[in-house]
Amino acid sequence: MKCIKPYLFTISLLGLTLSACNNDLEEKIYSEVTEESYAYTDAYKAMSIVYANMRSLISHTSYYMAQESTADGIVMPANASGWDDGGIYKRMHLHTWNSENPQMSNMWNSFYAGVINANRIIDQVSSGKITLPTGLTKEAMVAEVRATRAFFYWMLCDNFGDVPLIADRSDELKGKTARKDIYQFIVKELTEAIPSLSEERNQLMYGRFNKWAAKTLLANVYLNAEVYSGEAKWQECLTQCNDVIASGNYQLETSLRAPFVTNNQNSPEIVFAVPFDENQAGGFNVEMFSWHASLKNKFGMQDTPWGRVRPKVFRNSLIPMIRPMDGWQLPG
With contact defined as beta carbons under 8 Å apart, do 271 and 219 qualify? Predict the structure, then answer.
């Protein structure tokens, strides 16, 4: 006769085990910080990622090189030590670049990183996820982030033309929107954001979009409106420029070098800056790929310059926004 008791015991034990399960398969992660588990107690730090992303634009494989080497600003020839890099600089100079050039992909990725982060922050502020400090309203912070997003869309509009328009966190990066529509979106964003932006020009607003920086950006957009949309906007551009001048906050320096002196946050010529710091916010290394190696000793540099380009003095629509790293100065 067969014995079935062991099997009955096994089945009963299995049933007891299953009945004890609460079906809670949600894993609590201790090894990483997720958006849901992180407490956004500092609005300025939460917003800083959008501005920090701008530092990546000043590179020999990004926006800086794409702008300067394709025009009359610099040339970057190969030499015995290298600097051909598969012809990526020569193609930019000869206007024969393609999608494989790192300057193109790096610009695209940096611009959309700015857009996507801005969309996320706008959503988090609007939903109350980010705690705002005393004196900063939800409308003001959203307006500032919209202005930074408009900056990145201006970069996309100016450099690529027709691009995907993602204005919400849930939007997917696909499809293509006409350049004229991107231009109109930028104008709308800035026009609606400007009234809620701070008019202050102080240390707290340094490296951030206040009302005057947004108006300067809008003036740049209007300056090329005919290219973007087919309709010139000269008077609109002039109006924005006059507003900035009439604010009394800004004026030209008496010395060409003055806005670029290390730690010159108080320069009246700087409307908007992308701050760099030797220890905490590196990346400004134009002197490294433009100066000759022998200049290391002359100017007491810590590292030896790589030295392949001859850049012009930065004084165009974007570069007055840039200041050098702490601990580094223009020669003179």
Answer: no
Structure tokens at 273: 């800056």
9 domain-assigned:
no
Q: Rounded CA gap, 332 and 314, in Å?
A: 16
Closest CA to 148 of 200, 103, 193: 193
Residue 120 structure tokens = 């996320």
230 Cβ contact list (under 8 Å, min separation 6): 180
Amino acid letter for position 232: A
pLDDT in tens, 253-303: 998 888 877 777 888 999 998 888 878 887 777 777 777 778 888 888 888
Joined tokens for residue 176: 């293509």
140 belongs to a structural domain: yes
Q: Which residues are paired to 274 by β-bridges?
A: 322
CA angle 26, 32, 37 (to 5 degrees): 65
- What residues contact 304, with CB distance under 8 A and at least 6 apart? 293, 296
Rounded CA-CA distance 7/29 in Å is 39
Give the H/E segment covering residue 179.
helix 179-193
Tell me the residue range of the domain where 206 lies: 38-250+269-321
- In the predicted structure, residue 168 carries a pLDDT above the cut 80: yes
Three-state DSSP class for 16? helix
Instruction: Tell whether 240 is covered by a domain.
Output: yes
The enclosing domain of 243 has a CATH number of 1.25.40.390
Residue 256 domain flag: no
CB 295 within 8 A of CB 288: no
